[in-house]
Amino acid sequence: MLNSNELISLIKDYNPNCNEDLISRAYEYGKNFHDGQFRVSGEKYFNHPIEVAKILIRQKLDDATIATAILHDTVEDTDLSINEVKKNFGNDIALLVDGVTKLTNLQISSGETKQAENFRKLIVSMSKDLRILLVKLADRLHNMRTIKALPAEKQLRKANETMEIFAPLAGRMGMQSMREELEDLCFRVLNPEARNSIMRRFLKLKNVNVDLVPKIIQDIQKELQKVAIKATVLGREKKPYSIWRKLEEKKESFTRLSDIFAFRIITRSEGDAYTALGAVHQRWRAVPGRFKDYISQPKSNGYRSLHTTVLGRDGKRVEVQIRTIEMNEVAEGGVAAHWSFRDGELFENPFAVDPLAWVRSLTDGFEGAENLNEFLEHVKLEMYNDKVFCFTPTGEVIKLPRGATPLDFAYSIHTRIGDHCVGTEVDGKRVPLYTRLRNGQSVKIITAKGQRPQINWENMVLTGRAKSAIRRSVRYDRRMEDIRLGREIARNSFEKVNKKVTEQALVTAAKKIGEKTSDDILAALGGAELTGMDLIKLIYPEMFKGKSLPENTGEVTSFVGLPSGAKGKTALCCRPIPGERIVGISRKGKGVLIHAIDCEQLKDFEAKNENWLDLRWPKNSGSDGYSTSLLVTLLNKAGALGKICSLIGEQKANITDIKFFKDRADYYIIYIELEVRNIEHLMNILAAIIADEDVAEASRYRGNKHEFTLLPSPIVKS
Ligand code: MN
């Protein structure tokens, strides 16, 4: 820990006329007061106020602010102790210390009305003297730097409060470095995984570009020399949290140097800044749409700078900010620049924002606000640039990230409201659910019982809460649907072997594949992880002993017209069945492949007549089952599939596989693989299916099931 003299010499570096007596008295007073006190980390408590003072010294603040920092934790909220500070250090410092103490005692992020009340106190105390807030921010910064010593729960609470209130406040005050450091310290606590992944990538990119940064600085300096401008050129790493926020907003990856590094030219005069810009643009091509002149049009927090991005070395993007020394002070220190020293004198920075005017701009228009909540939301609105605030029909305020939709809004009220959402009115007008909400809009969610989340909703929402709720619901719905369909398949498969489905049998089968309940095995069936035949095999393995499964391999040997000794095999592209006209294509050494006469593949052989064989089905064909498939477009309605399965069963055909593909909202496409005797059998089945009232379309599918999975529709049930 610094001793009194060391601290004073730090101040003297920028303020040789500093009141040494005041600082050393404050130092002794604080040291005595905190004697015997320790922080959670185990270090001496007095170290903390000294570190806070050092943060403010770095911002070159006046004696009163530094003394306040040293004393900021010495006053319990009593008249007695504040009077003692007044007696020892005068009215000015007593007021500052009292203000900081009151701020510290505010529980800003608690309760609704209490929060508003406290927030107003914060603004009011700020408006008395903004230096109170400067000390408070420095206090919070040091506490965040040492937050790892606290229990996890307290870390989260502090980090949330800092991210919500103090970091944006620092930003509003123009204190960019303070804001960035606060945000990054919160980011470590609130989302360590995200920060780690950013850091890993960051270091990789940095390693790749390690030589590039000094080279780019040299390049820029060379150009500045040509136009005889003296300036400081800096390369600056971007902070993980600001990279993260940009990624979140733009949904882009970060791959470029300009994503992690920015360059800064600090000039001696405004004229030099524009000359430097000209030199940079003359040497390198400017990226369109990236030039901004915040010197002729400063931001409301006093920020002044020229921004541009150029294609530098090897066409790499280089982001450059150009500004004067004074402008840079304001850009880094914000309102603190108002109290800055230069050459031992309080320095009047022409660009610094007058603190009183700044506070007025924050509180303007809210003087008469009767409703505290309204006041709070107005102030928050002003502060949070990355948030939107919308209203429920009853006037409640809902805070959402910028870019959120009515669905986010619905889910942030209640999961039930989100799940049942069918539409939305924004400011009294019906709009699509993917509409991005804007500040101050009033949002009404229209719900209907029985409505369930759609899978595409996931792409319409921004908040994690909505995303996970939608995923959960869709997963649940899909499982329910799988179980319903699985039950139909199970019933059908059991009937084929003249058995009845029992709960006991299903549980037995479930256990054999490492699941627990009958629902689990039905879901596996319905989800096409398991076929009906697999299920029967699990329960009655003895049925299949010594028997190969009646699987259709396409092997048929005895076609009429085959050369003696040759083997025939039905082609998988068209899967002909008995009764259809067929053609054999002989392949040297590989037997004969049997195609249906209208198979597309035959075109490839038209030129090679010698390979064509005119074949007929053997007489006894039709007693075995031939594998074929159907595509049925079926109404999404309870019992509809069961009816189709029964229809097929009545025709004495075996279903060997069923897959479900979602087409339109109300219909499924169902792929049914079955075994039929011949073409007549198949046509009878098709006719029966088409006659069903719930069927929109039904047709034979020539290809096999492996090809079928290549169809574009994903399996989606909702
Ligand atoms: Mn403190």
Characterise the protein shown here:
It is a single chain. The chain is an alpha+beta fold. It has six domains: 4-190, Orthogonal Bundle (Hypothetical protein af1432), CATH 1.10.3210.10; 205-346, Beta Polymerase, domain 2 (2-Layer Sandwich), CATH 3.30.460.10; 357-471, Roll (Ubiquitin-like (UB roll)); 472-544, no CATH class; 555-615, no CATH class; 626-710, ACT domain (Alpha-Beta Plaits, 2-Layer Sandwich). It is 46% helix and 16% strand. The chain is built from 27 helices and 21 strands. Strands 1, 2, 3, 4, 5 and 6 form a six-stranded mixed sheet that branches. Strands 14-16-15-17 form a four-stranded mixed sheet, with no helix packed on it. It has a four-stranded antiparallel sheet with strand order 19-20-18-21, covered by helices on one side. Strand 5 and strand 6 (317-324) form a beta hairpin. The longest helix is centred in the C-terminal third of the chain and has 33 residues, at 464-496. The model is unreliable at 365-372, 547-554 and 709-718 (pLDDT under 50).
Stretches where pLDDT is under 50 for at least 5 consecutive residues are: 365-372, 547-554, 709-718
CATH fold topology of the largest domain: Hypothetical protein af1432
Count of distinct strands: 21
Globally, the shape reads elongated
Cα Rg: 38 Å
Helix-residue proportion: 40-55%
- What percentage of amino acids are in beta strands? 15-25%
Relevant CATH superfamily of the largest domain: Hypothetical protein af1432
Total count of helical runs of at least 4 residues: 27
CATH first level of the largest domain: which class? Mainly Alpha
Which structural class should the secondary elements be placed in?
A: alpha+beta
Task: Estimate the mean pLDDT confidence.
Answer: 80
Euclidean distance between termini CA atoms = 64 Å
Bound molecules: manganese (II) ion
Biggest β-sheet description = 6 strands, mixed
CATH architecture designation of the largest domain = Orthogonal Bundle
Our count of domains comes out at 6
